[in-house]
Amino acid sequence: MTHSPGSKNFRLAILGCGFMGTALLSGIIKALGDSPREQIKFSVSAPSQTSIQRLQQAFSSHRDQVDSITTDNVDAASGSDIIILAFQPQQLTGVLSDSALLQALQDKLIISVLAGVSSRQIIEAVYTSSELTRQSRVSRVIPSIGAQINESASLIAETSLSQSDRDLVAWLFQLVGRTVVVPEELIDTATAVSAACHALTIVAADAIVDGSVAEGIPRPIALDIASQSLRSSASMLQGHATIESLKDSLSIAKGITVNALLQLERGNMRSGISDAVRHAAQYAQAMSSGNE
């Protein structure tokens, strides 16, 4: 793998390229555009011919970049510098039982996006006991669905990577959105918060649109208003305002916003949302420990 201060030149493989792998690849390609400074090639693997056809169709206009689409994990990994593990978490043992694939993974930067699978599990599956004494090159990242439109909230676990590998992982996932570094013991909980936030936002937007339509606003207009309002509020909270200051600025005396908030509180909205987030966090912790 060759790096220079202003450019990057490597091959990246995504093994088990399902929905999240496709979203990541789409976002990375979109972010890179036609930049001559990043000469990145991609190999992807998928478990079936149906998946292969889906990927070929999805990246038909980028075959100069995505130049290898195969059902063979070994083939995808062998010539690559960075490997993203993107198959289903329950497939970990089966996929990494292939000795040829383990050989192909040696000395390469491995990034796992598998929910509920610790970096230690990856390390122990990839390296022999004698190799565990040296510094492994395994990172754990949980991207979000927004990766496909370069709006991911990617959670990067704190692991014992070299500084150059940490920088490379951060750069790669910053291409598809924002990144947050999280202690690995908290990453399952943080993943649950992200998942719950997406779910609650979708439900909230749906309810807002339905209420708007009931009051006579056409659905497409209501959806535009709701989605942009959610986006602007989220953007304001990313370094521009605190929750308290934003609430204060919107809640003027006898205003529409404060009356809407009071009505929401009558339905125990705040405790309902908190309970949903805590339930998601507890479920994620149970899933990680195999007790779900």
TrEMBL record:
GO terms for biological process: L-proline biosynthetic process. The chain crosses the membrane at residues 12-33. NADPH binds at residue 73. Residues 11-116 form the Pyrroline-5-carboxylate reductase catalytic N-terminal domain. NADP(+) binds at residues 15-20, 86-89. Residues 184-287 form the Pyrroline-5-carboxylate reductase dimerisation domain. It comes from the Eukaryota. Keywords: Membrane, NADP, Oxidoreductase, Transmembrane, Transmembrane helix. InterPro entries: 6-PGluconate_DH-like_C_sf, NAD(P)-bd_dom_sf, P5C_Rdtase_cat_N, P5CR_dimer, Pyrroline-COOH_reductase. SUPFAM superfamilies: 6-phosphogluconate dehydrogenase C-terminal domain-like, NAD(P)-binding Rossmann-fold domains. It holds the Pfam family P5CR_dimer. GO terms for molecular function: pyrroline-5-carboxylate reductase activity. Belongs to the pyrroline-5-carboxylate reductase family. This is Pyrroline-5-carboxylate reductase.
